[in-house]
Design goal:
Order of helices and strands: HEEHEEEEHEEEHHHHHEE
Number of strands: 11
Largest sheet: 5 strands, antiparallel
Radius of gyration: 20 Å
Distance between the termini: 31 Å
Shape: globular
Structural class: alpha+beta
Mean pLDDT: 92
Low-confidence stretches: 88-102
Helix content: 25-40%
Length: 287
DNA sequence: AAGAGGCCCTGATAGC
DNA sequence: TGCTATCAGGGCCTCT
C-alpha cells in the first residue's frame, strides 16, 4: 500500500484509537516477514502504554511511554486493520481467525481493551522491529535521506547530492538514501508536474528544475494526504476507509489517456525504468 | 563507489 | 475452465 501519504494516513487514523492506550497483549501468528519478527517481541511491548505514533518517510513508528519504539514498514502489501473485540476475555488465536477477518496473512495481533490492531502482509516485504532507545532507532535510520516535509529537504541539499550523479532522476527519487518517502506512483506524478523527463541524469538537472522538484514534491504529497492517500489496490486506513488521490492522478495508471495539461494533445505513455512502470507525457516532459 | 539487476513473496488479471 | 505469463504503493544484496 504504502508511500509516504498512505503511511501518514495510517498514522492519523491509528493515533486516534491507540494514543495513551495500553497494548494488553500481542499474538504473533506468523513471524515471517522481510526480517523475522523476534520471538520475544511480546515480552517487550505487552502491557506498555503508547505515547505517540510517529512517521518518518515510509516508516510508522509507535513510541511507547518509555524511550521505546516499534518500527513498522509496510513493504508492498502491508496493512493495519482495526477490529472491534466481540469478547475481550477471549485471547486464543482461533477466536481471532473468525471468518470475517482476512486471516491468511495476519502476522501480528495487537490487543487493546475493546479492539485489536492487525498487521496483515501477503507478500511479506514489510517488517516490524523493536528499539529500546531513540539512539538505536536513529542509528537504524541513519542512512535515509530527508523526508520531504523535513527541513533537510532543501535546494542546497538536492544540488549537492545531484551534482555528479549519473543515475536518472526517476531512480533517484525512488532512492531512499537521497529522499525518503517517495515511491513509484508519486515519482511519476512529481516528474510530470516538474516537467522533467524521468530518464534525465541527476547531474543534468538544472537549478530551476531542482526548485520545481522541491515544490512539486510537497504539492503532490500533501494533496495526496488531504485526499486520504491513493487506493489503487485496496489501500485503506485502519478503519477501512479508502483514499481518493487515484482520481487525481495526472499520469500514473493513465496509459493511452490524454495528457491533462491544457492545450496538450499528447497521450500518456508507459515506459519501464529499471523494471518499474513509469508514466510520462513525452511532449510535456521532453527535457 | 556508484549503479544495474536479481531476488524476495503472494495474488490479481490477461491471454491463450 | 484452467494453464502460464506478467505485473503490483519496496528495497536489500551482489556483482561489476
Amino acid at each position: 500500500m504504502p508511500e509516504l501519504p498512505e503511511v501518514e494516513i495510517v498514522k492519523q487514523s491509528l493515533i486516534k484509537s491507540v494514543q495513551f492506550k495500553k497494548i494488553n497483549n500481542l499474538i504473533i501468528n506468523n513471524r515471517n516477514l522481510r526480517f523475522k519478527i523476534e520471538k520475544n517481541l511480546k515480552k517487550k511491548i505487552a502491557n506498555k502504554r503508547i505515547k505517540n505514533i510517529l512517521r518518518k518517510s515510509k516508516y510508522l513508528i509507535i513510541n511507547f511511554e518509555k524511550d521505546e519504539y516499534l518500527l513498522i514498514h509496510f513493504g508492498m502489501s502491508g496493512t493495519l486493520h482495526q477490529v472491534k473485540n466481540k469478547n475481550k476475555f477471549k485471547t486464543n488465536l482461533s477466536f481471532y481467525h473468525s471468518k470475517n477477518l482476512p486471516n491468511d496473512h495476519n502476522h501480528v495481533y495487537f490487543l487493546f481493551d475493546n479492539f485489536k490492531i492487525i498487521y496483515n502482509d501477503p507478500r511479506r516485504f514489510g517488517f516490524i522491529k523493536y528499539f529500546n532507545s531513540n539512539d538505536k532507532l536513529n542509528f537504524f535510520l541513519r542512512n535515509y535521506g530527508p523526508d520531504p516535509f523535513e527541513n533537510g529537504f532543501n535546494f542546497k541539499y538536492l544540488k549537492k547530492y545531484l551534482i555528479n550523479k549519473t543515475k536518472n532522476i526517476k531512480n533517484l527519487l525512488l532512492d531512499q538514501k537521497f529522499i525518503s518517502g517517495i515511491g513509484n506512483i508519486y515519482a511519476s506524478e512529481i516528474l510530470f508536474y516538474s516537467k522533467i523527463n524521468p530518464l534525465k541524469k541527476g547531474k543534468n538537472i538544472s537549478q530551476y528544475e531542482i526548485n520545481k522538484i522541491i515544490k512539486k514534491t510537497k504539492f503532490v504529497l500533501s494533496k495526496a494526504i488531504k485526499k486520504g492517500g491513493s487506493s489503487i489496490r485496496n489501500f485503506k486506513n485502519t478503519k477501512g476507509k479508502i483514499g481518493s488521490y487515484q482520481e487525481e492522478f495526472v499520469v500514473y495508471n493513465r496509459e493511452n489517456k490524454n495528457c491533462k495539461r491544457k492545450n496538450c494533445k499528447e497521450k500518456i505513455v508507459k515506459i519501464n525504468i529499471s523494471k518499474r512502470s513509469t508514466f510520462i507525457c513525452k511532449y510535456c516532459q521532453k527535457k
